[in-house]
């Protein structure tokens, strides 16, 4: 018996898998066959491979996100969180942005919470670190870096300048290498407009615990990427990690100590910890344990895919698991959507199988690495051609025709117009100036100046 007038398919998460699975279900579903409900704390999906370019100003931040309500007009989109799942009653507890929690019954469940930044209990990291998992962080990083150039240009204090112009990135995978490549590019361009700041004054540091960077593209291309960044003046320290960064004082395990206002953390991801409250079978690293059909082990009405799922890699052989990347997430979502429809209609489930097609990475304008797989043949590219492959692949993978055109328009304009180097740091506290103007204290101070004793007390 259905828990609602018609079956409800509850999609927890509006990222890659949540968005694409919901679209697939709505496309395959007959009119009125079921209600599709998507729950996510944000009302938009973020295309994460474009975050480094958004941080560097090559793509407008609005064009990197896809509004869920616009793309899923036939779905019910709830802005909030699923705090717990009661599998016996088939009920989810929803925590909306405002107001009291409430229960939402469902018949079929899709778990697509994705991943969060994998962090460690490093002193000072929570207070000083900057992540790169969301568009908000990309915008914040861009404004922060340009603000550091403003600070360095306006002061004669060498200690302040040195700390402002030192940028530390922890993590040498796709996110870390692409972000430091894009940010270094942006800072190099921006320095042309600062009379007291040169590229030689800046210090870029990349740290990784592994013995190589960009492992996704193979050892040779990874080595080329490493040497390329070093030629651009980036200091790369491998086989080491960060011990602490209290008050911006970075201490590495290899003994290096630097002071920096900018500490970017891109050292991997982990499944969303909220999964622990759903009562689902989890793998050793916290992923939802699924069958090749993407059904959660031991259930016939719950599916999971993407970064929060442990999906067997049938193309990789026995014991292999699909890596947490966009290539797999987008394809898993389609199989998952088809299987939800099949499960609802009582048909057999299809298995997910996808052979790796390669990997692409951009390291700034006209710079990149790419490994393209055709059957048993691997084509390795580097430099400008790889950068074209990077943009071409992700341009096609970007959801919706609307966003594809907007991203391509940004790239096209970037060929003819100079990069914007304006810091909008005040956007993080947009009401501060108005509050100061409207504050009774400010008004009183404008009418009656403070006495010398009051000034001393206030300072």
TrEMBL record:
Presence of keyword Iron:
no
**This protein's UniProt keywords:** FAD, Flavoprotein, NAD, Oxidoreductase
Query: According to the lineage, what is the superkingdom?
Result: Bacteria
Q: Where is the FAD/NAD(P)-binding domain?
A: 8-315
Q: What Pfam families does the record point to?
A: Pyr_redox_2
- Spell out the InterPro entries in the cross-references: FAD/NAD-bd_sf (IPR036188), FAD/NAD-binding_dom (IPR023753), NDH-2 (IPR045024)
Note the SUPFAM superfamilies from the entry: FAD/NAD(P)-binding domain
Write out the similarity annotation: Belongs to the NADH dehydrogenase family.
For this chain, one GO molecular function annotation is:
NADH dehydrogenase activity
**Could you tell me what this protein is called?**
FAD-dependent pyridine nucleotide-disulfide oxidoreductase
